[in-house]
Design a protein that fits this description.
Its EC number is 4.3.3.7. This protein has 458 residues and is an alpha/beta fold. It has 16 helices and ten strands.
């Protein structure tokens, strides 16, 4: 039996069907017309369609009043009307915004987008590094003209004796800046040209970056006019290396020391990319010590970055052959091995040495590198050098400086002092070389185990 409710349902279905078809055709026509007619005509037409949509919506509401209040019919009718309302609403919005374009902020340069596997045209092609995506300095807030104490790369290249300066501590594990200042001042008095702040010897690996940058800034503010300050701002994280180097130059350091990424090692192309990110910020020394990083920096990596105006040279720990290979190609080299520095300097044209031993005998190390070949002095220093490196640096130099009385006998863990037999051996070495050649004024003494304080939390 045909009833008013059935008529309402049929009419509602018919309205939904007509609306969908009409709006589909309208959208298709809109997409065509928006390309071929003037924009003011198109928007006038959109307004007309929008008016018709609103009129149709009112007619549906009128039918709603005629149908009556039967619950079953009302439920079906409301479902139809909800669907119709949704379609009308979406279509009207689309028509009013038919000429929408994506906001500029949503347009991301394509070098930020990862390549999807299904977008690869040639799956067997050899991958090459995306050089265009490496932007070494444009993202940095610091600009070169904001850096104080700007130093030329040639000034860094001329340094012969650079001390990897020790960082002394107070009983609570904080820096002992009074003892530190005394150490740096004694280096200056004995002819040292530069200091590495926060290197391996200075235990930068046990510092927070806040401590690290503070110590660089302190050294610059106190001694920056008397000695070149080179901050160890390297890291196995390029992001950290960039940030630390930016801060180091901002507080005034004259040059940066950078190591290749260690532990989570990278490829040779990755090394080049890593160094290219930090080189634009200022004079830079690259540090190659495979015994610590687990990965050698081969010559072809150094040759790839050697054209940079900020590349000062390399601290090389591999040996004389590598030193000779670089110097014959005009690359500045500092020996990273105290026991080889004499021969590297006088036989293989190294510029000098970045030294641990000069913490103890800066005057003798200066003499070793300044007055021509001196094999007798070199031989005299070898027992001390061998003693210093019997255990991983900086354990030896920490123990020695404590026994000389120039720093407190305090170690940040995991470093611990050398055993008693080695401490006795050091006293004998000092007597053989002459106490007057070592820094400090106190008599050298053998410290007992109980004299040392080991700090695990600081």
């Amino acid at each position: 039996m045909f009833t008013l409710g059935a008529a309402s349902d049929a009419f509602s279905l018919f309205v939904v069907f007509v609306t969908v078809v009409t709006m589909g055709v309208a959208l298709a026509i809109a997409l065509i017309l928006m390309r071929v007619i003037p924009s003011e005509w198109f928007h006038g037409w959109c307004q007309l369609v929008d008016t018709k949509v609103r009129t149709l919506h009112k007619e549906i509401n009128t039918v709603n009043l005629i149908v009556g209040a039967d619950p079953t019919i009302r439920l079906r009718r409301e479902r139809f009307l909800l669907a119709t309302n949704d379609i009308l609403f979406v279509c009207s919005i689309l028509l009013r915004n038919a000429r929408w374009t994506p906001p500029r902020a949503a347009i991301v340069p394509n070098f930020h987008l990862p390549m999807r596997s299904y977008e690869v045209k040639n799956r067997n092609a050899r991958w090459t590094p995306p050089h265009a995506a490496i932007i070494p300095s444009l993202h940095l807030p610091m600009r070169s003209y904001e850096v104080k104490n700007r130093t030329s790369t040639d000034d860094i290249k001329s340094l012969r004796l650079i001390t990897a300066i020790k960082t002394p501590y107070l009983p609570d594990g904080r820096f002992d800046l009074e003892a530190y200042d005394s150490l740096v001042n004694m280096q200056i008095e004995d002819g040292v040209d530069g200091v590495i702040v926060g290197g391996t010897t200075g235990e930068g690996q046990l510092m927070s970056w806040d401590e690290h940058i503070m110590l660089i800034g302190h050294t610059i503010n106190c001694f920056g006019t008397s000695i070149k300050v080179i901050g160890n701002t390297g890291s196995n994280s390029t992001r950290e290396a960039v940030h630390a180097t930016e801060q180091g130059f901002a507080v005034g350091m004259h040059a940066a020391l950078h190591i290749n990424p260690y532990y989570g090692k990278t490829s040779l192309e990755g090394m080049v990319a890593h160094f290219q990110c930090v080189l634009p910020m200022g004079p830079t020394i690259i540090y190659n010590v495979p015994s610590r990083t687990g990965q050698d920096i081969p010559p072809r990596v150094i040759h790839s970055i050697a054209d940079s105006t900020n590349f000062a040279g390399i601290k090389e720990c591999v040996g004389h052959d590598r030193v000779k290979e670089y110097t014959k190609n005009g690359i500045t080299v500092w020996s990273g091995n105290d026991d080889e520095c004499h021969d590297s300097k006088w036989d293989h044209d190294a510029t000098g040495v970045i030294s641990v031993t000069s913490n103890l005998v800066p005057g003798l190390m200066h003499e070793l590198l300044s007055n021509g070949k001196n094999p007798s002095l070199n031989k005299k220093l070898l027992p001390l050098i061998n003693w210093l490196f019997g255990e991983p640096n900086p354990i030896g130099v920490n123990t020695a400086l404590a026994q000389l009385g120039v720093i407190r006998p305090i170690f940040r863990l995991p470093y611990v002092p050398l055993p008693l037999a080695k401490r006795v051996e050091f006293v004998n070495i000092v007597k053989e070389i002459g106490r007057e050649h070592f820094i400090g004024e106190k008599d050298v003494q053998v410290l007992e185990d109980d004299d040392f304080l080991l700090v695990g939390r600081y």
